[in-house]
Amino acid sequence: MDAEQFRSAGYAAVDQIVEYYKNLGSRRVMSDVEPGYLKALLPSGPPEEGEKFEDIQKDIEQKIMPGLTHWQSPDFMAFFPCNSTYPGMLGELYSAAFNAPAFNWICSPAVTELETIVLDWMADLYGLPGCYKSISEGGGVIQGSASEAVVTVMIAARDRYLRGATKHITDEKEREDAFYARRTRLVALGSTMAHSSTQKAAQIAGVRFRAVPAPEEEGYRMTGSTLKETVEQCLAEGLEPFFLTATL
Fold first, then answer.
1. Nearby residues of 140 by Cβ (< 8 Å), 6 or more positions away
2. Closest CA to 114 of 81, 149, 139
3. Residue 157 half-sphere exposure toward CB, CA atoms < 13 A
4. How many other CB atoms sit within 10 Å of the CB of residue 201?
5. Predicted confidence band at 80 (pLDDT cuts at 50, 70, 90)?
6. d(Cα 198, Cα 192) in Å, to the nearest integer?
């Protein structure tokens, strides 16, 4: 695909997306295909030559659309909001064009700085204190999903807790042994109503998980008293709570 073919395909793709959104309310929200449906519709191996973009668009409508759950549908009421917007799609287009792996500042200064600035804006919108912003020790980082974010912050919290708990040990080998021995006693907490990502993150981080009751009579909310009781129970068992997922 050369530049002019890309330009033409881009116009066609935008038109197809606009029509998709215009008629989204008339589509069935949940897919009714059977597992493995797509394998029967696609070749047994990758194509050796490219296809015309209009043929690819037909495949999208005839083969891919039937297997989609339409999260953008006005009738979609499951899981969590995952709304897309036209400005967001244009931003994704630029992101795909630049394709800059920004794992540190020098790789693409604008990418790192834009992320930092915008996430500081979000901290202000949420009313978070200054410690959550880049002007302090905080500052946001965009993750690929909420579950990925929970794993990231739990591992950071685990290591920060353990470094603080073992910093008094001067011998490097003894400190390392104490670090990993103490890690076996760590426990992450989350409400019984919290998303399962906290428990899964605990498994990945190699720590325990304990659920804090959120009873019906409390409106399925975690309260200070139930949290205190859970923490005290953990301490009585020789465990060390270090992390809590708060469901807001």
1. 115, 116, 119, 120, 122, 123, 132, 134
2. 139
3. 22
4. 25
5. confident
6. 11
pLDDT tens per residue across span 111-167: 999 999 999 999 999 999 988 899 887 788 888 888 999 999 999 999 999 999 999
How does pLDDT run across 161-201, given as a tens digit for each residue? 999 999 999 999 999 999 999 999 999 999 999 889 999 99
Instruction: Return the exposure string of 91-103: e unless at least 16 CB atoms fall within 10 Å of the residue's CB, then b.
Output: eeeeeeeeeeebe
C-alpha distances (whole Å) from 127 to each of 56, 120, 165 are 46, 11, 31
